[in-house]
Specification:
By secondary structure, this protein is mainly alpha-helical. It is built from 18 helices and no strands. The longest helix is centred in the N-terminal third of the chain and has 36 residues. It is globular, with a radius of gyration of 21 Å. The N terminus and C terminus are likely disordered.
Length: about 425
């Protein structure tokens, strides 16, 4: 059945006011839940996801739930939330520390991710007899770590800038690399592409580097305009950069996430020298606010789209996937760090920072959105959705809630001057 433009317009006209009202109510609820999370000393993201899950189990009927199913969640995340969350993290990143640790960040976001993808994929082939191409596809989508939850905890605790930049930089680049790898493996898993290593690696590099190049140009151009702009025009320009760099890159068939990361880093790196103090203060407050709103709604939405029956029916498989993901993290990170410190002569990462990178590998909205967007033609679609949902909830409940304890045990919540150099 083909809908006419008038029918589509009428449907949206009926849905939009209801959806906006529900989002307003959810945002207000997120603020109240945030107050409770502070008193309970629990990560806000965990409490929000659980609150969304409880709401659906209590029979709360929302029009948004229908919109968020399948492709809807992916479109909302990719086109609305992801540019906000990525740009907010990138524009506030310490550019000096990022460049100082660029080799380590890049290696952990690429080589370690590939190792994790292969480890998880082979684990699923061995334990669940899933075809290799499909298993690697799941390994790629579940390797997309979530920078939001872990960075919120790190900032709240007050770790050294070196640790914060290292973890945040890895998470930011990691998401872009995971999405590019997911798109490549998806075609192989559904049979529309053949596995040819050379062309696949070439496409991977072109998509990633192309996104970084476009974002760098957009961010630099915007930064050059900063001396001409007062507070409000500068704020509007930053929003245009965040979304414009993403959409422009996607339209040119390169990575939108990589483009937004590069644009944020380029603009943020020049704020100190090219923007006035009132402009800098407004931009930081604006993006901190937008990040909070997007973060709150995103994790509420995660809870709302979770199918509890699907999780319970696949609990054994989910536990296997969760163990594989948790084990894959140190298997991927430790040898890469050891190689960099021994042969690449990079600034020492240190054992304590390595532990934080490992334990901070939370999974969130990106992994779940990629799973929900899997095509119906993929035989393992429902299984992968259950596994991804279980792993996301599992890492939130296990890693996010214990991360403050890990930081305290490593004395990283009391950063010393030496932590800036040997974290």
């Amino acid at each position: 059945m083909v809908l006419t433009a008038q029918e589509i317009s009428g449907g949206l006209g009926e849905l939009l006011p209801t959806a906006l009202l529900e989002m307003s109510v959810l945002l207000g609820a997120a603020v109240l839940v945030g107050l409770a999370a502070q008193r309970l000393r629990l990560p806000l993201t965990v409490v929000l996801a659980v609150a969304g899950l409880l709401a659906t189990q209590l029979g709360v009927d929302l029009a948004l739930v229908a919109v968020l199913g399948g492709e809807g969640f992916k479109e909302l995340l990719v086109n609305l939330f992801l540019p906000i969350l990525v740009f907010e993290a990138a524009v506030t990143l310490s550019t000096r520390e990022f460049m100082r640790n660029l080799v380590a960040i890049t290696a952990l976001a690429t080589v370690a991710l590939l190792i994790s993808t292969i480890f998880v994929g082979i684990s699923l082939v061995w334990t669940l007899a899933i075809p290799l191409a499909a298993a690697l596809l799941f390994g790629a989508l579940i390797s997309a770590t979530d920078p939001v939850a872990v960075i919120a905890v790190l900032r709240e605790v007050g770790v050294s800038r070196r640790v914060l930049t290292l973890v945040e930089g890895v998470c930011l680049l990691n998401d872009g690399v995971a999405i590019v790898l997911y798109n490549l493996l998806l075609g192989i898993a559904v049979g529309t592409m053949s596995l040819r290593l050379g062309p696949a690696m070439g496409s991977f590099v072109v998509v990633s580097v192309g996104g970084l190049l476009i974002g760098s140009l957009v961010g630099t151009a915007a930064a050059l305009m900063l001396p001409l702009l007062t507070r409000l025009p500068a704020a509007a320009m930053s929003v245009a950069v965040a979304f414009g760099s993403f959409v422009l890159a996607e339209s040119l068939e390169v990575s939108g996430v990589m483009s937004t990361v590069a644009a944020g880093i380029a603009l943020g790196g020049m704020l100190e020298s090219r923007a006035t103090k009132p402009v800098r203060e407004l931009l930081h407050e604006l993006w901190e606010s937008l990040g909070f709103i997007a973060n709150a709604l995103l994790f509420l939405f995660i809870g709302l789209v979770v199918d509890l029956d699907l999780l319970l029916d696949n609990i054994g498989v989910i536990l296997i996937a969760l163990v594989a993901v948790l084990v894959a993290r140190p298997v991927a990170v430790v040898p890469v760090v050891a190689f960099l410190e021994r042969f690449a002569h990079v600034p020492r990462v240190g054992n304590r920072s390595t532990v934080v990178v490992i334990w901070g590998g939370l999974r969130g909205g990106v992994a779940l959105a990629l799973a929900l967007a899997l095509p119906e033609s993929l035989a393992q679609r429902d299984l992968f959705i259950a596994m991804a949902t279980g792993v996301v909830l599992g890492t939130l409940l296990i890693n996010a809630t214990t991360l403050p304890f890990v930081l305290h045990s490593l004395h990283l919540d009391e950063p010393r001057r030496s932590d800036e150099h040997l974290a």
